[in-house]
């Protein structure tokens, strides 16, 4: 993955299905994100990576839309999940997650960070990260 070596390093994490388990919440119901449960093994991985001296920043790239920002940030803080940046889709954006996240990668992440790896669940998004030359750990089967 081409990026300048002087940029701070980061790991990228997804929200729904990766850090957060939705349970009975529809993925489109942004008003109930506070009800999500932490995906403990993934949360522990994020915490361990954030504490590693070779990792400068923790980045969240979410398919959630902007109207869920406040609830998402509150949830992350409440569950002790470290993050330095949270990138989300615009409220009116209905494109596929892989398209949205690839745009976030190009516009926001690669201009600011040297990406060490990604943790995501959705297959189409995992495929995109890997196609772009990034190491992507798949947190759960995500063929939807």
TrEMBL record:
Give the superkingdom in one word: Bacteria
| Keyword Lyase listed | no
What region holds the Polynucleotide kinase PNKP phosphatase domain? 8-144
Name the InterPro entries for this protein: HAD-like_sf, HAD_PNKP, HAD_sf
Alphabetically ordered keywords of this record: Kinase, Transferase
GO MF, any single term: kinase activity
Q: Which residues cross the membrane?
A: none
What is the protein's name according to its record? Answer: Polynucleotide kinase
> Native species of this protein?
Galactobacter caseinivorans
